[in-house]
Amino acid sequence: MDRQVIDQKLESLRRCLERIQQKCPATAQELINDIDLQDIIALNLSRAVQISVDIGTHLLAETTTPVSTTMGQTFDLLAQANILDATVAAQLKKAVGFRNIAVHNY
């Protein structure tokens, strides 16, 4: 495993999460009324999910776990390999669903 790759991805993930936190509105109505804010948050959430999948795939490559065929399955496999807590894996899998809606509208 290339630790430098993981570290770079973790730094990118940290920046996405920081940006989301900085832009998170006080109310849902504020978010509804501000399309630019919606775009900033959706883009950074999408990036955060993708980066998380990339990190997971990188970690799984070092195991005998089969290759994931979907983004969501990556988190299931990480939980099965005891790399990621099952509860966290389930939450991240839901985040993939959000990403799919935000990016692909499905």
From TrEMBL:
Keywords: Hydrolase, Nuclease, Toxin-antitoxin system. It comes from the Bacteria. InterPro entries: HepT-like, HepT-like_sf, Type_VII_TA_RNase. Pfam families: HepT-like. One of its GO terms (cellular component) is toxin-antitoxin complex. Gene3D superfamilies: bsu32300-like (1.20.120.580). PANTHER family: MRNA NUCLEASE HEPT (PTHR33397:SF3), UPF0331 PROTEIN YUTE (PTHR33397). NCBIfam families: HepT_toxin. This is Uncharacterized conserved protein YutE, UPF0331/DUF86 family. It comes from Nitrosomonas eutropha.
